[in-house]
Specification:
Elements (H helix, E strand, L loop, with lengths): L2 H4 L3 H15 L6 H40 L1
Helix pairs in contact: 2-3
Amino acid sequence: MDENQKELSLEKAFTQLDEIVAKMENRNLPLEDAFEYYQKGVQLLKLCNEKISRVEKQMIEIQGEQEHDVF
C-alpha cells in the first residue's frame, strides 16, 4: 500500500472500490487487467478495514472514559 492510499479518506476509498467493481463487471476485460483491479481492490479493502478498526477502537475508548467519568 503506498502513501497516497494511506491518506485516502474512507469515502474516497469506497468510491474507488465502486469504480473498480464497475470496471471488473466488463466481460471483455483482459485477465491481466482484472487481476490488477482485483489487487488494487484488496489493498483498498485492507485500508478501509484498518480505518474502520481505528475508529471503532477510538469509540470504545471514548465510551470507556465516559462510563468511568459517570461513576
